[in-house]
Amino acid sequence: EVHVTGRRILAIIVDSLLIGLLLSPFTIFGTNSGGSMSTSLAVSQTLIYLVAVLLYFTLLEGYLGQTVGKMLLGIKVIREDNGEVPGLGTAALRTVLRIVDGLFGYLVGFIVVMASAKRQRLGDMAAHTLVVRK
Length: 134
Known about the structure:
Elements: H1 5-28, H2 39-63, H3 68-73, E1 75-79, H4 88-96, H5 98-101, H6 103-115, H7 122-127, E2 129-133
């Protein structure tokens, strides 16, 4: 069952909230009394956030086929060819392409998913994966 678009949307919202919550101490403790931060600190925090996001999706989907959001919503990522957990390389490819799929608040990914017969975003197409009901 690949018609899980609504669940995918809710899962990315859950994952985004979780990542934001986990990384919020970096932002809170990085500001001065005026509420601003230096450019180098802002760049460092952005890099930490980017690495954390890449690791979160790559490790969880690579090893388990699911992020926390996907677990809560009963969906998982599988390889198209054998239905197994994607593995780290495949999950890393999916994750890197989130940069494109995530443009304009995931509008690019949403349009591609809706236009795809298998409900795949660009990352799924490149990595040959599907998101299915668990």
